[in-house]
Amino acid sequence: MKQVFLIGVLLLAVVRVAGQSENIDSLVNVLETKKLSSEEQISIYNTVCYYYLNSEPQKAMTYIHKGLSLAEKEKNNKWILGFTTYLGRVQMREGNYNEALETFNHVLRVSIDEKMTDQEAQAYVSLAQLYQRQGDIETSLDFLLKSLAIYEKGKTVKHKEMVVTMLYNIGTIYRGLNNPDLAIQFYNKAEKYADELNFSEGKMQVYYGLADIYRGKNDYEKALNYSLKSLELSRSFNNKEFESANLGGLVVIYEQGFKDYTKAEKYANEELKIAKEMGDTYLITGALSHLAGVYINQEKYAEAEKAAMESWKMDSTDTDLGYMTTYYIGIANIF
Questions:
Q1: CB-based burial of residue 123 (10 Å sphere; 0-12 exposed, 13-18 middle, 19+ buried)?
Q2: On the chain, which terminus has fewer CB atoms closer than 10 Å, C or N?
Q3: Residues 6 or more apart in contact with residue 288 via CB below 8 angstroms
Q4: Of 283, 325, 287, which Cα lies nearest the Cα of 308?
């Protein structure tokens, strides 16, 4: 199963903390001293939310609400929209797509009314990810192109980093539309910009995308090399979403490329563990489907049916994932 993931860095200017939990703990301790200005508190809430959203979304909710409350008290629209965007992303990861759509559309309307172009671009990317998760690839691409047009006009390093992310995401969409040649053009352009900026998070994304391309081309040695590089970077940032996605890619590489079902099962279980820690329905269902496929190849049909049924019960609306899940259920029952 070659599942497509659309994953982008979150879209607020943040203080980078290298993904180390001890640094986050120290920031939380600083917050608790309450000897900070409102602007300093909001900035730290943003950093903490960014970190936890990529590792422990449920924990992020505590700081999202605190940050949003303070931003509303200060009547700071930039931060209000930022924390509202975080809220929508947690809703999306919990599978509450209707709530997330309402949240992201609210952010978009306010951004356009207030002529806040950065926030408008953020809203487009959030909507793109939401529609991609629901299988509406063309709408997702339309939103990404709107966001890219805004970021390309920006002058800051952050704007340039976001161009890298948009190029990566657009490449991923074209990969999902079975146009690998166009996808690789966007990935190569993103990689060039990421190298020029020394943007490690951008490299993490691009390496994942290139691994996906080479899996599709059945060049499993190159795919393995890029997957391991992206996995290492994802762990250095404690980015659980990309860690889970890379583990899923390794499942496919070892299952389809090297017929090493023992390693494939190992990575599938690691993927599922990370996805469940995050509580992300989309990642959990994908991991369960990966695991079911491995069990089919190992002729463990009872285990395959159990994993596939669990995936189906969590989300049967994704067309690609639903197709593979029902296929695994059928094969398991045949045997």
A1: buried
A2: C
A3: 272, 307, 308, 310, 311, 314
A4: 325
CA nearest to 93, candidates 129, 147, 138, 142: 129
Q: What is the largest CA-CA distance in the chain?
A: 66
Q: Say if residues 159 and 151 touch (Cβ distance below 8 Å).
A: yes
Tokens of 67: 């940050």
Residue type, 69: S
CA 303/CA 82 separation, integer angstroms: 43
pLDDT per residue rounded down to tens, the chain (335 residues)? 444 444 443 333 333 444 445 478 788 888 877 688 999 999 999 999 988 887 888 889 999 999 999 999 999 999 999 999 999 999 998 889 999 999 999 999 999 999 999 999 999 999 999 998 888 889 999 999 999 999 999 999 999 999 999 999 999 889 888 899 999 999 999 999 999 999 999 999 999 999 999 998 999 999 999 999 999 999 998 889 899 999 999 999 999 999 999 999 999 999 999 999 988 888 899 999 999 999 999 999 999 999 999 988 886 555 555 667 788 888 888 88
Place of tokens 């309307």: 109
